[in-house]
Design goal:
The protein is an alpha/beta fold and 243 residues long. The chain contains seven helices and nine strands; from the N terminus they run αβααββααβαβββββα. Strands 1-4-5-7-6 form a five-stranded mixed beta sheet, sandwiched between helices. A two-stranded antiparallel sheet has the order 2-3. A two-stranded antiparallel ribbon has the order 8-9.
Length: 243
C-alpha cells in the first residue's frame, strides 16, 4: 500500500500556512482507523469515510500497542532509535516485512510493524509516518472535533485493553467514539454479537465468520461484503455521545 511522502507533506504545510484545509487533512468530523492492520483502513476507504492517512492505517499493530501509542502521544512510534530495517533474509518477500520497531517487538512480540515501508532507512517513509502522527494529533487535540475511531482484529483482545484505549481517548480535547470489531473465525455463518455494559464512548461488536482475514479482506468474498455492510451500518449510526 503506497502513499505520498515528503512532497505531500510539503504541500500540506503550505496549505496550512495559507489557512486552507487540504482534503487530506482532519476536519470537524473524522473517521479514523486505529488498526490493527490495513484491513480497517481499507474498509473505511471503500465506504468513502477515510479522507486522510493516519499512522495506524498501514502498519501492523496490536490493541496493546495502540494503547501505548495513545498513552505517550505516539512519541515512541516515531522515535528513530526504535526503528529498525528487517534484514532481507528475514523478510517474507522482497517488498514486504520491511521494518520493525524495537520497543513494540520487545513489549508485544511484533516481529514486523512496517510491512511495505521502511522509515528506518527511507526518509520519505519516515516523513509519511510523522505526517500521519501529526494528523491524528490534530484530530484528537482539536476541541469540538468529533472522531469516529475504528479498530478491527482477529486476535483475542482482553476487554480491559479496549477499555483502556477508550479511557485514553476520553482524555483528549476532541469528542471520541471507538467502535471495536473483534473478528471471530471458524463459525458456520456471519453473525454479530454486541457487548453490553459499555460506556457511551465505546461499542464492541464480535463479528463471527467462517473465513479468515487475508490481507485487506476476508478470504470469502461474500463474507467480506457482509463485513463491509456491517461497518457501513455502524458508520450510519450516530453515537449518543455526540448528541
Amino acid at each position: 500500500m503506497s502513499e505520498p511522502g515528503a512532497t505531500g507533506g510539503l504541500f500540506g504545510a503550505l496549505g496550512r500556512l495559507l489557512g486552507r484545509r487540504e482534503p487530506r487533512e482532519p476536519g470537524p468530523h473524522n473517521h479514523v482507523s486505529l488498526g490493527c492492520n490495513c484491513q480497517m483502513a481499507h474498509v473505511l476507504k471503500t465506504l468513502d469515510l477515510r479522507h486522510w492517512s493516519g499512522p495506524l492505517d498501514w502498519i501492523f499493530s496490536m490493541p496493546g500497542m495502540v494503547r501505548d501509542c495513545l498513552a505517550d502521544d505516539f512519541a515512541a512510534l516515531v522515535d528513530r532509535d526504535q526503528l529498525e530495517t528487517i534484514p532481507e533474509a528475514e523478510r517474507r518477500g522482497p517488498d514486504i516485512w520491511r521494518g520493525r520497531h524495537r520497543l513494540y517487538r520487545e513489549r508485544h512480540g511484533l516481529e514486523c510493524v512496517f510491512n511495505h515501508h521502511d522509515p528506518a532507512a527511507r526518509e520519505a517513509d519516515y516523513a509519511f509516518l510523522t505526517e500521519g502522527v501529526r494528523r491524528i494529533r490534530v484530530a484528537l487535540n482539536t476541541p469540538g472535533t468529533e472522531n469516529r475511531l475504528w479498530m478491527m482484529t482477529h486476535l483475542h483482545t482482553p476487554r480491559e485493553t479496549v477499555e483502556a484505549i477508550d479511557a485514553l481517548l476520553a482524555q483528549r480535547a476532541s469528542r471520541n467514539h471507538l467502535t471495536f470489531l473483534q473478528l471471530e473465525t471458524g463459525h458456520p455463518e456471519v453473525a454479530v454479537v454486541e457487548a453490553a455494559d459499555l460506556k457511551p464512548s465505546l461499542r464492541w461488536l464480535t463479528v463471527q465468520t467462517a473465513s479468515e482475514p487475508v490481507g485487506l479482506r476476508l478470504a470469502d468474498p461474500a463474507e467480506d461484503a457482509r463485513l463491509v455492510e456491517i461497518i457501513r451500518a455502524e458508520a450510519g449510526r450516530r453515537p449518543d455521545l455526540f448528541g
